[in-house]
Automatic annotation (TrEMBL):
<dbReference type="InterPro" id="IPR004692">
    <property type="entry name" value="SecG"/>
</dbReference>
<dbReference type="GO" id="GO:0009306">
    <property type="term" value="P:protein secretion"/>
</dbReference>
<feature type="transmembrane region" description="Helical">
    <location>
        <begin position="6"/>
        <end position="22"/>
    </location>
</feature>
<keyword id="KW-1133">Transmembrane helix</keyword>
<dbReference type="GO" id="GO:0005886">
    <property type="term" value="C:plasma membrane"/>
</dbReference>
<keyword id="KW-0812">Transmembrane</keyword>
<comment type="similarity">
    <text>Belongs to the SecG family.</text>
</comment>
<dbReference type="Pfam" id="PF03840">
    <property type="entry name" value="SecG"/>
</dbReference>
<keyword id="KW-0813">Transport</keyword>
<protein>
    <recommendedName>
        <fullName>Protein-export membrane protein SecG</fullName>
    </recommendedName>
</protein>
<dbReference type="GO" id="GO:0015450">
    <property type="term" value="F:protein-transporting ATPase activity"/>
</dbReference>
<keyword id="KW-0653">Protein transport</keyword>
<comment type="function">
    <text>Involved in protein export. Participates in an early event of protein translocation.</text>
</comment>
<keyword id="KW-0811">Translocation</keyword>
<keyword id="KW-1003">Cell membrane</keyword>
<feature type="transmembrane region" description="Helical">
    <location>
        <begin position="55"/>
        <end position="76"/>
    </location>
</feature>
<keyword id="KW-0472">Membrane</keyword>
Amino acid sequence: MTLALQIILVIASLLMSIFVLLHKGKGGGLSSLFGGGVQSNLSGSTVVEKNLDRYTLVMVIIWLACIVGLNLIQAYGV
């Protein structure tokens, strides 16, 4: 059980990092370093941004659940 949670945690962490970097930048921050400053048709779509927000939120919930689960297993030895 612990190994499965650890694997899910690593995958969720990687996906969450990718989804955060894919968000459209509001200014000249890190996203403009990766070409986020370039205007394209897909990046301006509100549907794409909404879906990306949802996917990021799901990854955050999975990540937090894995952290809590691993801490409970460590604390109580379930």
